[in-house]
Design brief:
With about 300 residues, this protein is of the alpha+beta class. Helix content is about 25%, strand content about 15%.
């Protein structure tokens, strides 16, 4: 059975299909599941799916506001994000549109996930944002210093570019940096369980290393982001807290510089995903320490950090 949180998607199954986005059969209001008998020899601890047909129809959606789908015109796997509309506006969509509009030169430094489509339906208080399906940052481990430095450079490049547009992300973290690498898993990987094979048994999929294939890192989730009209219009703010609630800016009650906060969060991201997991050169730990200076005035800007890295 569908979870209560999934029934909203079932309501819009037909409309999305009409607009070119196919959800899993699980969300078809007319779908009736059928099951194979579970083999007696299979240990109960193994996550085998006895569902007939596409076994992924037995998997519920982990996040209420995120749905996997296929764009029927070309078979592209996408994600659809449900974002609330407040006062007739969808804040996250507006931020993504601002980024697109200000990026007039299609700058290669732009690492913001592209907004492929937006759907607004009569009777719904949500806007649906369609974006490409991406892989988790840690779907495979880093293997070389070169892979790590490429990751660091791309993130710095993306945030520096975002700041050049006078947009602060305000929620940078391990959950909001993802990767696009279509050739990383030569035989494919399960979109619901990235890193596993496309099958009924949870087995690891064979993969190449990051240095062997094209890898591009993207910033996602602009729900807490803020766009200023110009550099001169930037001002301290105090609204919302992202993933890293231990940032020095949150220790008091005064408004803070959102751009300096982004830099600290970049440092925390690098610490969690690199320093805490791998043996790395001294220069990298020293560099990350500069990003996480307690006093925002002692931190470099994202552009300066990129230039000195």
């Amino acid at each position: 059975d569908l979870l209560d949180s999934e029934r909203w998607w079932s309501r819009w199954f037909a409309q999305l299909a009409q607009d070119g986005y196919q959800l899993r059969e699980r969300y078809d209001p007319n779908w009736v599941p059928k099951f194979w008998p579970v083999p007696d020899w299979l240990p109960t601890r193994v996550g085998y799916s006895p569902l007939r047909g596409d076994w992924t129809n037995g998997v519920y959606t982990k996040f209420v506001g995120i749905m996997d789908a296929v764009r029927t015109v070309d078979g592209l796997r996408v994600v659809i994000k449900r974002v609330p509309i407040r006062d007739g506006k969808c804040h996250e969509a507006e931020i993504m549109n601002i980024i697109h509009e200000r990026d007039v030169d299609k700058d290669a430094r732009n690492h913001c996930v592209p907004l492929l489509d937006r759907r607004d339906y009569t009777g719904s208080t949500y806007s649906l944002l369609v974006m490409p399906h991406l892989l988790p940052l840690d779907v495979i481990p880093f293997e070389t210093v070169g892979e790590i430095t490429d990751f660091v450079r791309q993130v710095l490049e993306g945030v520096s570019f975002l700041h050049s547009l006078n947009v602060a992300h305000r929620d940078i973290g391990s959950n909001n940096v993802m990767m696009f690498s279509p050739d990383l898993f030569p035989s494919g990987t399960c979109h619901l369980y990235p890193g596993d094979v496309l099958g009924r048994l949870p087995l690891p999929a064979k993969h190449l290393s990051r240095r062997q294939v094209y890898v591009r890192y993207f910033l996602i989730d602009f729900g807490l982001s803020w766009a200023f009209s110009s550099y001169e219009a930037r001002r301290p703010m105090r609204t919302g807290r992202g993933q890293y609630k231990d940032a020095p800016e949150f220790s008091g009650s005064r408004p803070y510089d959102s751009f300096a906060l982004d830099v600290w969060c970049i440092g925390k991201l690098f610490k969690e995903e690199i320093l805490d997991k791998y043996r790395t050169p001294i220069f990298l730990s020293e560099f990350i320490a500069t990003l996480m200076q307690p006093d925002p005035l002692d931190r470099p800007t994202a552009a300066n950090a990129l230039a000195t890295f």
